[in-house]
Please model this.
Amino acid sequence: MFLNRVTLFKEPQMESQYPFTIPAINNFKELELTSPVTFFVGENGTGKSTLLEGIADKCEFNTAGGSRNNLYDVDAAESALGKYLRLSWMPKVTNGFFLRAESFYQFASHMDELERENPGKGALDGYGGKSLHEQSHGESYLSLFLNRFNGQAIYMLDEPEAALSPQRQLAFLRIMHDLIKEQNCQFIIATHSPIILGFPEATILSFDNGEIEEIEYEMTGHYQITKYFLDHREKFLEELFEGE
Model:
């Protein structure tokens, strides 16, 4: 554990301004991180990615995706929340990475540009020595996790399942397990995947209902909907399409 507390500072007049118009963000005051893996869950628009991005910004990671050393720009990648956050560390680490699924293509292009500008200098060594664009989407993610993620570090991932098949989500869980046990890494992950959410002894924080609250795995909407669908597929679809 490195990052153990996130605190929000805002003035009352800010409540009418984005991102404080998001109920869970507006009601948020302080968050204690007590597990090596913390999940943010909730419906789209509930603020989980907003908070994750704000934490990444406060860590001085590129909010378009990457580490402190990845300097490139993507439209609408700036954090609206980072400047209002305070992070408490024990100890502080500067090594880490922010994975933003929606801008990963631009990150891959950024790494290719670094390789062209500095041929033979190892820009792609942390990604399997091969352009991320020359790998499938899922392969490029696993290449990142296997080669770039290492050492005492904090990793913030926004919907890593976007490029991973169910089988590769399981492979990702094993990579996480090994990084935590062998290299003392910490993860904060925003996800919709019931597979990834199943990581043992993780803390799951729900952003639904306008609050950030700890929730058990079996109580997440992602688990309940997926389980109901798999157990009652025909009935579920019949109800869904009723009236057509």
